[in-house]
Amino acid sequence: MDKYKVLIGLEMHCEISETNTKVFSSAENSYKDEPNSNVRPVDLGFPGTLPVVNKEAVKKALMASIILNCKQPEFIYFERKNYYYPDLPKGFQITQETKPAPVGIYGELEYECNGEMKKARINNIHLEEDAASTDHYSRYSTIDYNRAGVPLLELVTYPDFRSADEAVAFLETMRRIYQYAGISEADSRKGQVRCDVNVSIMDKDLDETKEENWGTKVEIKNVNSFSGVRDAINYEIERQIEAKENGTYDEMEQQTRRWDEASMTTIYMRGKVDAIDYKYFVEPNIPKFKLAESWVEEIRKSIPVLANERKHTYIEEYGLSNYDATILVKEKSISDFYEETIKLGADPKTSSNWMTTVILGHLNKYELEIKDIYLTPEYLVELINLVEKGDISSKQSKEVFYKILEDKKSPSEIVKSLGMKQIGDEDTLRPMIVKIIEEHLDLIEEYRKGRNVFDFFVGQVMKQTRGQANPSLTAKIIKEEIDKR
Ligand code: MN
After folding, report:
1. How far is the CA of 137 from the centre of ligand 1 (A)?
2. Nearest to 264 by CA among 221, 235, 233
3. Which of 70-79, 239-248, 411-420, 471-480 ranks highest by mean pLDDT?
4. Pairing with 26, which of 129, 269, 292, 378 sits 20 to 30 Å away (CA)?
5. How far, rounded to the nearest angstrom, does the alpha carbon of residue 274 sit from its chain's CA centroid?
6. Which residue, among 284, 308, 310, 391, has the nearest Cα to 117 in the 3D structure?
7. How far is the CA of 125 from the centre of ligand 1 (A)?
8. Cα 163 to middle of ligand 1, angstroms
9. In sequence order, what are the beta bridge partners of 128?
10. Which residues hold their Cβ within 5 A of ligand 1, which is an ion?
11. Ligand 1 centroid distance, CA of 385 (Å)
């Protein structure tokens, strides 16, 4: 490993989920519905149908382009990528391939990897349509055209990553950008994010600014999870180093492979000679249109507060540690929930403690999302307040938390039903304690002789309140009353 340097480039495909309709048709942008129910004739390329560009999809794509510090084109236009596959009934995909067509070119993005800031250069980001989805069974295959025409953003980086860690940290950063900017849910489990990974290795002492030194590029297609990206890269680095060591590296051709999850290996698909010529040309059915600078400015101004900025606020204004702030912004739904509790008046640190320990612990354990559990920001604030008022102890509050999820009731209802509520006000406790002491004045004598009567009095108070007296306040009042006598 020490003798080589690794070069990794990424192509990240992410569906834009936050538009109502598809990128070139009025079909609903959703495939939660019955297969083949959100389909218009234009999605199937029927003769005589024409695509209409979805302005919202272009807007979201431009937003991503601005966030990635890319240069936006003077004119927006699309191109045809010609190939046949059953998931592409038109026989071509509408995309933006050749410069300067893409919605963004030549950008860069800073991202954090293992506590260090890194920078990756972006070659381009372009808007295209997704293909239909196919499922293969032993004797037949099915096609769902609900996905055909779903807006897709493809981001292409330069080979700026030096390890699987860096590549995955970048992808995680991008995923957060898509979520926080309201561009996409970017959920890999829903198949919304797919990556192609380029890996090559070069001798460490060669000049990496010269492309001819980069080694033989191997592309791994369609990796569907970030953990898959990590494993595929690490496998490929090992494989290529082994080829260097046993002298077969120079025979290795530029090739496309696929990641096989089952065997945890990459498998050869095709070599350079089999590379497909897509015969790109400008899509004739979509007029080229000039991109107004004022619209780009408007989009720039509408970019919401993103994860990094939120994290900064959590550290600088709320006094959270970098570690906790990082955990809180990792998922937008968690960060939104947290911010809601602050708006409702919760102490930022107390709320953060709840979120990063008890709540996330529970969610991770059962692989749940925050929206899946019966806890609202209002309930969390109520629970925090119950502890702060001394109504329940912090130990009891954990029990209440799990009971909220189990019984689907509010914190106060749970506290009531468990008979947990502490009696924490002096006005109730003091007269009760005075009465108990008055009835056992003989014990005060014993106390002076050195007998421990303290526990007896506490016991009496607990008996009368059915265990609900606040223990520390009870002890304090008993001591005061005994000392008075
Ligand atoms: Mn593409």
Report:
1. 27
2. 235
3. 70-79
4. 292
5. 37
6. 308
7. 10
8. 24
9. 152
10. 154
11. 52
Per-residue pLDDT tens for 7-27?
999 999 999 998 999 999 999
CA neighbor of 429 nearest in space, from 485, 469, 472: 469
Arch. (CATH architecture) of 426-484: Orthogonal Bundle (1.10)
DSSP string for 331-343: SHHHHHHHHHHHH
C-alpha–C-alpha distance, residues 411 and 417, integer Å: 10
Q: What is the pLDDT of residues 159-174, one digit of tens each?
A: 999 999 999 999 999 9
Distance 41 CA to ligand 1 centre (A): 22
Cα of 395 vs centre of ligand 1, distance in Å, is 54
Ligand 1 centroid from CA 66, angstroms: 19
Q: Where are the domains of the chain?
A: 4-296, 304-418, 426-484
How far, in Å, are 181, 253, 258, 271, 277 from residue 274 at the CA level? 39, 12, 15, 6, 9
With CA atoms as reference, report the closest residue to 375 among 345, 410, 348.
Answer: 410
As a whole number, the mean pLDDT across the chain is: 92
Expressed in angstroms and rounded, the spacing between residue 16 Cα and the centre of ligand 1 is 14
CA of 195 to the centre of ligand 1 (A): 11
Kindly give the pairing relationship between strand 92-95 and strand 255-260.
unpaired
The alpha carbon of 128 and the centre of ligand 1 are apart by a number of angstroms equal to 7
Distance in Å, CA 114 to ligand 1 centroid: 30
Q: Apex CA 390: angle with CA 336 and CA 346, to 5°?
A: 20
Task: Say what angle helices 164-180 and 332-343 make with each other, to 10 degrees.
Answer: 50
Helix (H, G, I), strand (E, B) or coil at 369: coil
Residue 45: name the closest of 11, 78, 91, 83 by CA. Answer: 91
